[in-house]
Fold each of these.
Amino acid sequence: MTRYFFLFLLLLSTAALADDGSRLWLNYDLIKDAKQRESYAPFTKFIAVSSDNQTLKIATEELQTGLQGLLGKKVTILKTATSTGGILLNVNQNAPSSANISNEGYEIYAEKGNIVISSKSETGVLYGAFELLRAIQMGKSLAKLSITSSPKVKIRMLNHWDNANGTVERGYAGSSMWKWNELPHRIDPRYVMYARANASIGINATSINNVNASSRFLTAEYLEKIKAVADVLRPYGIKVFISVNFRSPRTLGGLKTSDPLDPEVRKWWNDKTKEIHQYIPDFGGYLVKANSEGEPGPQDYGRTHADGANMLAEAMRPFSGIVIWRAFVYNADPNGDRFKEGYAQFKPLDGTFDPKVIVQVKNGPIDFMPREPFHPMFGAFPKTTLGMEFQITQEYLGQSTHLTYLAPMFKECLDTDTYAKGQGSTVAKVIDGSLYNAQYSLMAGVANTGSDVNWCGHPFNQSNWYAFGRLAWDHTLSSEQIASEWIRMTLTQTKQTEQKISDMMLKSHPIYVSYTYPLGTSHMMGESHHYGPEPWLAKSARPDWTSVYYHRADSIGLGFDRTGKLSNALQLYSPEVQQKWGNPEQCPLDYLLWFHHVPWSKKLSTGRSLWDELCVRYYDGPVQVGNLQKTWESLKANVDPEIFENVKGRLKIQEKEALWWRDACVLYFGEYSKMPLPKPLTPPQRTLNEVKKLVEIYHLR
Ligand code: BDP
């Protein structure tokens, strides 16, 4: 009797802790509404696929698993449809809308009592299968289904900053998901889960190692390991890229130099590229961080970025792969403006890059700050293919403890008008290739995946991986729609709960910005770990790694003057953009201190002085986090208990740390403004020195 009782208790407790998050948005939990389940029954009698192709097999199995989970019934797989009422998978060059869809695109439509998923490629069918499962989870009716979709961007890529020793640069979800010590002999089942998750949102490329690259990844030993990964990812439509160290000809090849114009160096890269293709015939290409933050590059030999990139492009010429060259470069000039440096170094090279080169540009000119104006290179390089680099991992955005949904931030950048070719020349049109008719197009996101059981640390961080993929596929999707899809597939099927969670997500980025970087401030985080506030940081290995370099607080005011009076970085933008941001009276408050040094007492459009507005925002942030907590608490009975507790704990940390940011910034800037807090705000209950000590504690952790 007691034995059974304990067994019962055990079952009860495992049932209560049901969701560890490992299934991501592919949990396919049973649709609770029986009526809805029944409505899908007439179209889910079987799945028909005539070919044995591996990708189609994966699509079929995904549909089978998905439908079994969602509808609670086994769906049979047939070679050919024997009756109506099934899902037909077709690879078809002449499908009805084939003129309008690209090779990876798909159509899903109801026809003669069946649902047809059709594409010109097997991968397109796989994407269509995921879309159908999504449509079912979103409660769409199948009877008149008609979806046509093609990716807007060709290369939709994750950049892993994973190292050979298992650590992850700026990773906040455990250690690396790649088990280099086990590869190629053991294939961790998570590689397959990773491939499914990526395919489900259309990601088709991955660079597997840190841009601060070790040459080790080009050794035969590692190529064998990478091949094993590539073999797993290939049937899911994902190509593998490698980040390379520019000095590899010397360190690995034993040459005297790595000068890109040296014939022996060029031969070394040609041979190495051929060798890689023996392991990975469809190798995606190279990703290169050169002459940036101490990494080697062509400038070490008096050559340009184009010389370096074009050398690698030449090595890649016999193959389909490409070269992705990062524009994240800046010099340590105390009197300069880091904002301008990528532009300055690359602008003279516009038009000199090989067509196989994509220059990958971070969304903003500094470094993945929680809010940055778009990078001035977008729209200013008509003769170079520019790709977008977003950061999914939340280096400056609360890492894995602050709830920050990033789709609105990604979209803010993509939707901004560069005016490069007149009104409507958005950043999105630059990077999807439509503005300049580019052959290639790229959107890359620095991955937030790790060995944590739920992949991303904070359960909500999964939504940023999801959102990145969805936007790379279609940047016109709204943040609301993406949030709603993710919530439905991951957390709840109940409309009301979904709406509350969506509301939390959509508010989360503005909340984060309000207690960290209001009004266009930036780069005031703790040194090296990039967590917590350190606005007083004035000394570092480089001036542009301090905080004072950016906020420029003095007795007069706050902010970096980037008008003609000082750095004139504004001049890098088109006249229309300059007009919008160049006048402090008209500049949107969200960008104000990016471009203007504003007096503390200056009255803003809100009717408050700069100082008062700053304080109001810093104080509002933690209050809003409190509201997030209340909303979450109200959902206790409606979400999985394990996820509930996990998020609840992290929201508590977030609240504590929002207060930390608030107190640090208000106390520190108060020493410059010398103004009292506006009523009814009450001063922090600790001194600036006490707050400064918190950073030391963090360092010790
Ligand atoms: C910065 C990170 C650093 C990266 C660098 C990069 O702090 O770890 O190596 O970006 O993008 O944000 O290369």
Amino acid sequence: SGRYFGTAVAASKLGDSTYVGILNREFDMVTAENEMKMDATEPNQNQFSYGNADRIVNQARGQGKRIRGHALAWHSQQPGWMQNMSGTALRNAMLNHVTQVATYYRGKIYAWDVVNEAYADGSGGGRRDSNLQRTGNDWIEAAFRAARTADPGAKLCYNDYNTDNWSHAKTQGVYRMVQDFKARGVPIDCVGFQAHFNSGNPVPSNYHTTLQNFANLGVDVQITELDIEGSGSSQAQQYQGVVQACLAVTRCTGITVWGIRDTDSWRASGTPLLFDG
Ligand code: G3I
């Protein structure tokens, strides 16, 4: 069908046979929950560390599953050495990171989250302030160009949260960026909608509109980190709504849930996932 069903995976759980049993049976795509982030892969500048990420990649490839890479450039989970950098030094360090990591995994990644969470929440619709943003507004396109050069076969995605509701300013801000990138030939292939839903950010009734409007720009759309606060039939109906919105859009190529069991979730105090503990 060209559509894939994925989950976030933690390397530390690959020895848990219950976890791996569900993983191997239910999913055909995986994302490293933390192991491919900047702090994990470049703990010291220009010293790269791929052990935990490789455990996930090798397990997935051994089972014939595809891999979403997460994430090459992000304001959060930066290694300590990077947090204190600015200006040209930071821009070059970021581009070197993108190039090195995408080159190391060249040919093994179906889609990369090249840039994660670069837009601000609220009514402004603009960029989030961060050390990366302060290197210049073109940092996102620079990251995408570096990623394309390093791994021309990977789909290159922009990934964010609270971009599900078409009427929200943040959604419109990301839409305008993708529209601009397509108009100017900046290499972008997909947009990831994290889809961390809760009572303050419910599954919107216009979700299909959002996904279709982005797809109409000429990019794939993917649900990349799905979890939904709640329980019972209300939660089940929201999961159904997300899946139906994706299935109604030809270019919605995947749904990834952000963990397997509730006990695996970053929201472990709730029951946001498909499997119980
Ligand atoms: O591994 C260390 C452990 O050694 C240490 O004892 C412990 C004490 O704090 O921390 C452990 O690391 C934690 C790591 O998860 C692994 O469990 C970090 O503190 C914790 O910050 C980290 O949280 C992750 C979070 O991103 C960080 O921003 C979550 O697991 C992960 O699910 C979450 O994922 C993000 C996506 O990348 C982007 N979108 C939002 C999503 C949810 O926040």
Amino acid sequence: MGKVWALGFACWLLVSPLVLAQSLPGPPECKADTMKKIAFGVGSSAAQSEGAAAVGGRSPSVWDVFAKQPGKIQDGSSPAVATDFFNKYKQDIALMKSMGVKNFRMSISWSRLLPQAVKGSSPSSDGVKFYRAVFKELKDNGIEPAVTLYHWDMPQVLQDKYQGFIDRQIIEDFTYYADVAFKTFGDQVKKWTTFNEPWVTCNLQYGNGDFAPGVQYGDSGKWKCGHNLLLAHANAVRLFRQKYNSDKKGRIGMALWSEWSEPWTDKFEDKRAAQNKIDIDFGWFADAIHFGDYPAQAKKTQSAFLPVFTEEEKKLLRRSYDYMGLTIYTAKFASEVPGNPNGWWVRTTDVNGKVVGQQAESYWLYNVPWSINRMLTYMKNRYDNPYIWVLENGISEKGEGNRVGMGPDTLRDPLRTDYFRGYISEACKAVESNGVRLTHYFAWSFTDNWEWREGFKTRFGVVRIDFANPQLPRGIKDSGRWLSEHVFKKSGQTKQVGEVLNFDELGAAC
Ligand code: NOJ
């Protein structure tokens, strides 16, 4: 009997990976050639992953301070350890390599590189050492970094000194920080992003106070923040072009957040409402870096608070990107506000009461694959067919934060797997049928990480981390296996990344 059982068990061990593999959906609906043209990868950010909050002289970011205030973070956690990427980066990079990942989006912590943060201050040698070691490890493993300078982690010293983005001083200090980063890491990093999701920074960090630093600056703060941030971006881009990118091997852009806004009905008023939302949320930054000014709709409706660019500033802003970075997760419907031609109402159900897509753990997120196609095609049409990098795309699976241990069941994420299959297929359609020039796509996120106000409760990783275990073990989820097999290993982008870096082919330098 024992023998039979042992034989059965041995057979199960042999067969189970096949059974598991068979349970995954097939490849995305993409031509092989399209897969080769897009550099696929995974993403993370410093505050959400590094930990080591006070190591090597790093000074706190606004999130370190904010998280200490009772009730701010849903599970009472903090970014002090996060995924411990600071200590585990070699292990994480080895895991990426095993999955066939060839592109990694990450960010630098401003206050780790420059603990005093201000113009003229000295870089921390420990900070420099850490990032150089990470970039080297990536290179040694055939992975290309794409680096964001600001992913919401304002140094607390700048918050204390002049309230961060509220003051124009941020323009000089950010440009100095960018200068130090370009100079120190330029031999290792060619792909840069100035700011991550300025919409979030200016609405939640410097508008309603929901996010760190947790101060309510209101509408006046929100538009001021956007203005200063845009000028900081444009100055950093000019510096990069003039001082660091004469060989045109590098690329720089901004990561713009948008959810697609679909008119609720075919009525003119609903179409106008959807466009109003896109203008105010996305055009706020996209129009500014492309045309050099705010959208007409913003000027018309926000004149009480919206600052005005000088002619010189407009010139500086115009085409201040090599690629247009997009972070896209979902879509909603927009309908008119009767009596208000400038407004919009956001709806999650269509006219027949059908929900726009399956809901995620995050209240704002629904699985709507066609959203990415419409957004990409919109950007193509409005912004003169730019090169587009999808810098984030992903979903939080319901209830994942409550899973215990690292058993096989904790790695099942059918919604996320389906989401990636659907969105990547639609992105390919945008390229193949609509002529969108999408050259990069990063799945968000590589591992589960510290999800800001939601702490460790909400998970986005394609790799699971058991945060209850002090060793923080990692395990590849089904979505990670799917991406590995059908996307990372199929895209063959190491060579392609080289080609992408050859500007003549892209023609996007200015
Ligand atoms: C966008 C942010 O850039 C990222 O930090 C966050 O984790 C994801 N959205 C998911 O909420």
Amino acid sequence: MSELTIRQPDDWHLHLRDGTMLESVVGFSARQCGRAIIMPNLVPPVTSVTEARAYRDRILAALGPDSGFTPLMTLYLTDRTTATEIEQAAAEPHIHAVKLYPAGATTNSENGVTDPLAIEPVLGALERTGLPLLVHGEVVDPTVDIFDREAVFIERVLAPMLERHPDLRVVMEHITTAQAVAFVRSQGERLGATITAHHLMFNRNAMLAGGIRPHYYCLPILKREKHREALLEAAIDPSGRFFMGTDSAPHPKGAKESACGCAGAFTAPVAVELYAQVFDQLGALDRLEAFTSLNGPRFYGLPVNERRLKLERRPQVVPEPITAGNDHVVPFLSGESIDWTASLLDE
Ligand code: NCD
Ligand code: ZN
């Protein structure tokens, strides 16, 4: 297959940031995706319905008219989030989920939840309203090795949480391990998972062998090859429970290429092409559309997109660093050649 046309994808996990960064990056997602679940880890975080509405307005302003792109907003849970706020969020049509960051787990998670098993009233409200809980599934216990933090989170936090709340709907975000794949498969329809392109493409050698490559540093951290293999199987699995979430996370060049570089890979400029390359290498291009465009809407109870995206097997070079105010942002794989080129078809 050297060309295929699929329903327009959605990105079920995206960081757009704010201000000049937002203005510089949002167009890359809008060029490919119909909708995206917008992560709330701004500084300060988006913790109320009012803030989520205002952030949505800033995203729409940055997009300009007729972008055709719909931001699906989320709230950031803190130790102070109340059940009433969850109920208000569930009643707000532009809010589609709430995000649980264990405090200290990742970029801008300082205000997250200290003990995810101690937010029972919030979890109860989520259960009652059906609003999904999106989970950054890593423990922050410093005695747990960074490569084990996802697997330990499943054991210590996620499994007991799901047991206590049989109607809670959860997305395990950016899964990276065989344990996460097995856990999602062991549960019913109420648990889904997003997978990034970079975790499907690379194991931790890409980040560490032959030199330390900060653009491959993201959280959860890249794992060993057997985990990548489990993710590949999950992405093409017919269960419909695994879907595209790029976790595209732009940072200024200097903040990544630093003695203490921050976590996040900016994949949005070529996100769908990277997934196409992975599915192509697996001989599974016929499964791509379900992963990018059908499974996510089904989980979120939304219609699939009407527009179509064309993918051609035509090499392209991943764009050069982009400017954002006085900064530059380096796209993941910038300057390297990839196999596919995507173009959105007119309505
Ligand atoms: C994300 C960011 O930069 O906001 N970074 C990352 O490595 N994925 C936060 C996150 O999703 O963990
Ligand atoms: Zn993220």
